Amino acid sequence: MNASPKGVRSELRGIGAVHDLGDFRNTFARNQTDGVAITSAHQEFGSAIHPVMKTHPVSGRRFLFVNEGFTQHLIGLKATGSNKPLDYLYHQISQLENQVRFQWTTHAMAIWDNRCTNHYATADYLPQQRIMHRITVVNDARVNDR
């Protein structure tokens, strides 16, 4: 978040955003068109509100907690007012200077902290096989996100 103008950072401090599965719920529908599976998935997974800026529990550094797939809108703003800052943040995330590109080699291993990383897997390792194991930390003594 250091690359963002200070004005943008101060505006985002304390702002929450709605995170929702959105059209990913269609995965649960399995070609059902009556909406029952979508309704069930919404009831089970619902929506959540998270701060746009969080504090990493270990490093203490601030990070953005938004992504195009799940962040629906900023709390307290109508869609038109919410889209502009979110589009700006998504644009920042997509800039090469804010990304890491990992080059796969034999026996290479990559580890990232999903709490503060947007990742996009490319098929640059083909025809080799990529094996992935996901580990999720359940309790990590998070700090206050104010």
What do these coordinates show?
With 146 residues, this protein is of the alpha+beta class. It has one domain: Clavaminate synthase-like (Double-stranded beta-helix, 4-Layer Sandwich). Helices cover 25% and strands 14% of the residues. The chain is built from 4 helices and 5 strands. The chain has a 3-stranded antiparallel sheet with strand order 2-1-5. It has a two-stranded antiparallel ribbon with strand order 3-4. Strand 3 and strand 4 form a beta hairpin. The longest helix has 16 residues. The protein is globular, with a radius of gyration of 18 Å. The mean pLDDT is 80.
Comma- or semicolon-separated keywords:
alpha+beta, Double-stranded beta-helix
Looking at the overall shape, the CATH architecture is: 4-Layer Sandwich
Question: What coarse outline follows from CA principal-axis ratios?
Answer: globular
Q: Roughly what percent helix?
A: 25-40%
Number of DSSP strands?
5
Contiguous low-pLDDT stretches (5 residues minimum) are none
Taking all residues together, what is the mean pLDDT? 80
Order of helices and strands: HEHHEEEEH
What number of domains? 1
**Number of contiguous helices:** 4
CATH superfamily: Clavaminate synthase-like
- Measured on Cα atoms, how large is the radius of gyration? 18 Å
Strand content: 5-15%
CATH fold-level label: Double-stranded beta-helix
